[in-house]
């Protein structure tokens, strides 16, 4: 496939191809492994918008700590089989680039992942997934699932976006006030969000919400707006001190500098996809203003 001039396919690590995008509106990197948006930096922004761990492991079949992991076709642990990988199979399999187009304002790429003998041993259904990525002053990622089999399946999923922040203690997440959430830190319990979300410890929450949020980053003096479509769950995660120490691919102090805001469908929001049907999950990250 011929790539536009602003996209090159590179292998800084042999056997680990990465698409490198250098467009007037933004720079980005996308790994073939997991069709994983690793980096995105709109032109004019001092700091990258997506966070990437300096200790991330870049190897085929391994999840990447940062960017936008695709959690699919389950979110979290496998519903019944603990030997299965966390967050499903999509983020650890190679996707195929079908198209890449450049426009004045952005670059658009379309990746594909389809079921085969291997995937069927991990998840006994037939599917075709397409991932549309639009990279410019804003970032849009759209995950379309089509059930190509003859039985319905229950789909859990997330676009697990890691956002760079200047200092997690100076971050406020707006837009989830009065929303119910499953708090998964310690005993799993349902709570009501009171006011904006602030960070004073580990936060790992699945909010029952279809709407967007605003991440107010007072340290970097910027707001990040995360909008979404086709998502009934917004996951907010920061590992804080102890969990950061337990994650080998994350520096101990890294929790200060990132926050995950994930467009998801988890728990009661998991989606039943009938044979022949399609489902779309979309997330959009934009930077409307300097605070
Ligand atoms: O999205 C929140 C979460 O489910 C956390 O519980 C934490 O496990 C995080 O995902 C990262 O998961 P990973 O498998 O990428 O280490």
Describe this structure as you would to a colleague.
The chain has 291 residues and is mainly beta. It has a single domain (7-286), classed as Beta-galactosidase, Chain A, domain 5 (Distorted Sandwich), CATH 2.70.98. Helices cover 4% and strands 46% of the residues. It is built from two helices and 21 strands. It has helices spanning 117-122, 240-246; strands at residues 7-13, 16-23, 26-31, 36-42, 70-71, 96-102, 106-114, 127-136, 139-147, 153-155, 157-164, 171-174, 180-183, 189-192, 203-208, 213-217, 222-229, 233-238, 258-265, 271-273, 278-286. A hairpin with a 2-residue loop joins strand 2 (16-23) and strand 3 (26-31). It is globular, with a radius of gyration of 18 Å. The model has no long low-confidence stretch (mean pLDDT 97). The structure holds 6-O-phosphono-beta-D-tagatofuranose (TA6). 6-O-phosphono-beta-D-tagatofuranose binds next to strand 18 and strand 19.
Strand order of the largest sheet: 6-7-8-9-21-17-16-12
Top-tier CATH class:
Mainly Beta
Distance between the termini: 42 Å
Helix content, binned percent: under 10%
Q: Which fold does the CATH topology refer to?
A: Beta-galactosidase, Chain A, domain 5
Principal-axes shape call: globular
Annotation field: number of helices? 2
Features:
291 residues; mainly beta; Beta-galactosidase, Chain A, domain 5; eight-stranded antiparallel beta sheet; seven-stranded antiparallel beta sheet; 4% helix; 46% strand; globular; binds 6-O-phosphono-beta-D-tagatofuranose
